[in-house]
Each structure stands twice: as C-alpha cells, then as structure tokens.
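Q: Joint fold for the lines below.
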Amino acid sequence: MPVPRAMRAAQRACGLLNRVMSVRRTPSASHRECATPGETRKAVHQAIGCVLALALLGAAALAISRRPAGADELRLPIAELRSQSAELELLRAQSAAASPRFAQVHAQHLAKAIDASRDELNAMQVEPALGEVRTAASALASQLAAAAHGAADQAAPTAALKALERSLQR
Amino acid sequence: MAQFAEIFLGILTAMGGFVEIGELTFTLNGGTRFAYQLLWVNLLGTIGIIVYCEMAGRVAAVKHRAVFSLIRERAGFSAGLLTLVASAIVNLLTCSAEIGGVALLWQLVSGAPYRVLLLLALLFLVLVVWLLSFQSIERIFGLGGLLMIVFGIALVHLGPDWRALAAGFVPRWPQTSHPRDTLLYFYFAVALMSSIMLPYETYFYASGGIEDKWKPSDVGLNRLVVIVGFTLGGLLSVALVGMGAEFFAAKDVEPQLPGTAALGVAATLGQWGLFAALLGMFFAFGGAAIETALASAYNLAQFAGWPWGKHRRKRDAGRFTLSWLAVFVLATIVVQTGVDPVSVVEYSIVFSVVVLPFTYFPVLMVAKDKSIMGEHANGWLSNTLGWFYLVAITLAALAAIPLFLLTHGGRG
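A: Joint structure:
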C-alpha cells in the first residue's frame, strides 16, 4: 500500500528529531572520538550545502542591490545624516563638558561616519521621481561633511535633513 | 572572601554580553527609537541567560564538563562541527569588534593613530591573558567593568519617567507610527534577546567554573554568581535603554559610536563622568575581547579533546594557548582592514541567534538528566524555564534573518 506523502514527511521529521535527540556518550575524560567516514561525509555535505546557500543569498542580494532605490531605501542614509548632524551640534554644545582631546577625536570619528553615509547616498541609483530629493540630500550631506571636517562657521543642517527624512516617510 | 571573589566570574561574563561595544550602541539605539518599550526583552533575556548559565555552571561543578564537550556528545559530530564553526565565526567577529572598540577608546584619550592603537591593543590583550591567572583576569576586568554604573548614575541624574520605565517591563504590542517601525521593533526585540543570551557567555562561564575548580558543593555558589552577575549586567542594560530614551531621543541622535555613549554621560555628569564612562567601557570591551578569544579556544579544545585551561602550564596546553593567540591575531587583522567595529558586531549578534538552540539544547539535556546529574539535576522550575527559553530562542532564530533583511539590516 502506498504511504501517503504527509506520513513520509512525518517519518522523516521523526528520524531527524531522533538523530538530534539521540544520546551518544563518549567518556568524559577523553573527547578524542574520531569522526567516522560517514560522519565526515555528512559534514562535507553540510559544508557544501552551506556554501551553496550562501552563494544563493549573495546572488539574491546582488540582484536586489542593483534595483533603483525607492523612498524607503533613500530614507536610510538621510536618517543617518540627520542623526550625525544632530550629534555634531551636541558635540559642539558640550565641548566644554568633554576634554578638548576627546572632542577633537570624536569629531574626527563623526566626520568619518558622515563621509561614509554621504558616499552611500551619492552612490545610490534612485527612482526618477526621487532624483530631486537625492540631489537636495547630497547638497546637505556636503554641507554637513564640511562642518564636521572643521568648518566651525558652517552650521549643521539638522532641521533640513529632518524635513527631507519626513518627506520620504509619507 | 575567596568565594565572594567568584562573583567576578559572573560579572565579567555578563559584561561580555550586556555592555560590549555592539550591545552598548544597540541598546542605546533601542532606547532612542522605542523609549522603554523594549525593556521586557531585557528582563526576559536576563532571566534566560541566568537559567542557562546556571545549568552550564552546575554541570561544570558536578561533572567537570564544559559546554562544547556536551555539544559534541549530544548533538554528534556533524551538528557539533556546524555549531563549532558558527560559534567560532561569531566569537571572531565579536573579538574583532572589541579590539577595535578598545583602540577607539584609547584614541579618544590619546589622539594616536587608530591602526597603531589596534596593534597596541592586541599586544596588551595577549600580555594580559599570557601573564595573568584566570582569577586575576576575572577580578580586574569584572571590577573595572563595574564603572559602567556611571550610565545608571547619569540616568538617575536626568530624572527619568519612572512610571514609563516600569511599564516597559510589561510586554505589549509596539506603539509605532508606521508598519515599518513595527518590523524594526521586532527586529530589535529578537536581536536584543540574542545579544543578551550570546552563546559565548555560556561557553566562557562553564569553562571558567572548571578553571576556578568548582566542586559539587559549589552549586549554591554558582547560583549566586549567575544571579548577582547577570542581574548587574541587566541593570546596566536598563540604564543604557534609559539614556537612549531620556537623553539621545530628545537630541535626535541615534548613537553609532562608543564616543557618543560617553558624550551622553559627559553632557550629564561632566568630565569625571566622561572618564569613568571611558574607563568602564575599556574594561567592558577588553573583558569581552578576552572572553571571546578564550571561549573560542575552549570550544575548539573541548570539541577536539585537547588539554585546555589557563590553570595548566602553557606547554601542557599548547594547542589551547595557540588557539586563543590565533583568535586575537585574526581578530586584529579583521579590524585592520578598516571595517567598522560596531557594524561587525551587529552582524555577529544576528548570526549568533542561529547558534543559540544548538548551544542550549545539549546543556538542558544534560542538566535535566538525573542519571548524569543525580541530586543536582534540574528541578521543575529549571526544566520549565529551560524548555520555555529553548522554544523562545528557536523562534527567534527562525525570525532573525527574515527580520534582518526586511529592516535593511536593522536600519529601518
């Protein structure tokens, strides 16, 4: 009599569960049990499976990354820049509370992070309808980068970045 | 007095889970984005790590068996090897991030070049593990990490909304303005749970119990150590959520750098707060780097059946010693490439969720087995909590990667 497909699946699941649950006690003092050829073969199969799965994931990620970015994706670097801009303002306001060396080095760290967010924004291919927003964001990112790289008279454009971010949230 | 000093094993282990560089920025961010809404995850995770470290420590005290020898025995060679490789990757990535974090902190104080400081951090950590006994390491880094309490002091100084804070411990559906934020909330919940229950904490803690020569009579001490150590870690994590909710959210800042965390304390408490925060972070990141490097070496040695332990002479545990040295060197190479330490550890946190069920299942199986543990086997409470958390972390493991992809890597 043919075994129904669901039953075969259940049998396979039980087999797998049994294998996971099975108690294989090796003497505690010596954990020097060598892998049997069968175990080694299984491990190699697992490794091949993992590599194939990773390759598939990588291919999928590559395909997704080549699509033009929508509002959701464009919002991410803008939100980061908004946060970095607010932090730059905070650092400037609190430089007296922190040590001069700390303030100087932290500003450098922040400038590096701002450069990375700006590069990400500039490298983005966006949907045509979002072109203007991207251009405006790039200009603000350059202004922020100049402020972070030591142009003390340059204001951090936090409010403008926040407005852009909000416009993409609708 | 000697028994009191054992508390530092719990504190050091907890520091490596609750306030290492990734967890620090991640928890602050959780507070900034969701205020106190995620506090129940902190509570859930803290109880979970207490439950499983208590079991692992009890097995170590009673049977002198560490976690990876149980994994090899219970899960078999293939599943054991898979867990070993996955946990080695998680440990290496985390160790890289911590070394990067130590170098960043030193740079904030000295202004010296980052890459030079990375090499100095490597040298420092190797010398510490090479020269100091396990007990000295756990006491120095456990005690030093307690300086992170300055975040709690800063929070109290800010005058938090205590009612909202208390309400955060009750699980509820997130109050968000957009479905995307709801997904992000669940991503934060899963990743926060994972980062609190990081597998290397259990590996390190159980192996540390064996290093400290625990006996069956130390079962009560083990319970005290995990409860005190991890509760302290949990409180620090609540303080970080509070700083995010009360300070950074008001300023529209989502902290991404360790310096940002310190800036929050400086703005609240002044220069002494800044230096206490930097010093506390140094001990926490350094302790986490040591914890992950040693955990990797423990895992490999226990899986392969090599002699292991800091208590042995180095030539008697040569492959174990080479293993932790190799982890430090490889981790430094990873950060020397210029990758951002915080991003590295955030990826490793998500990846580690997948390892959690494989780590905790064998611990539960042995700890509840009366034929192995005798009178020290799990009682009904440990069994119930053990199964509950096993189901919870398995669900988290299944949800972690899809949530990670749907939220653009947790960015929103």
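Q: Anything notable?
A: The longest helix of chain A spans residues 37-65. The mean pLDDT of chain A is 80.
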